[in-house]
Amino acid sequence: MAAKNTVIYCDRCVDEIISRDDLVTTFQFPILVGAYHTRCYGEEAKKGGTARIPLNSPYMTGLIVVASLSCLAGFVFYAPSPIWFFIAAIAPASRFLSWWLVERHITQS
């Protein structure tokens, strides 16, 4: 089965994003994941727009670890409730959506 070629465009400059090294993904409503060139994301941040944390960053990886450990501690020490698992799943789910909707379509790194 041949893979469908999906082109990813920058949400700011509407130019094609060719490399994963030049890609920044953010959570946006209602489209879920927005894609930016690194320079376009920097310009948006300087402009003082809404503060969006890049989903494909080391910060998000750290947030996943901290959130998961915090929720595990809440489950064990505070209340054994399924809500802790739901809260712990938010950061990894957003990171997975970033990969599924955008990053996997860009083949160059």
Task: Provide tags for this entry.
11% strand; 109 residues; two-stranded antiparallel sheet; mainly alpha
Spans with pLDDT under 50 lasting ≥5 residues? Answer: none
In terms of DSSP E residues, the strand content is 5-15%
Tell me about the largest β-sheet: 2 strands, antiparallel
Would you tell me the structural class of the helices and strands? mainly alpha
- Write down the overall mean pLDDT: 86
Determine the N-to-C terminus distance: 23 Å
How many distinct domains?
Answer: 1
Task: Specify the overall morphology.
Answer: elongated
What is the helix content?
40-55%
Describe the overall structure.
The protein has 109 residues and is mostly helical. It has one domain (20-105). The protein contains 3 helices and 2 strands. Strands 1-2 form a two-stranded antiparallel ribbon. α2 runs antiparallel to α3 (83-101). The chain is elongated. The two termini are 23 Å apart. The mean pLDDT is 86.
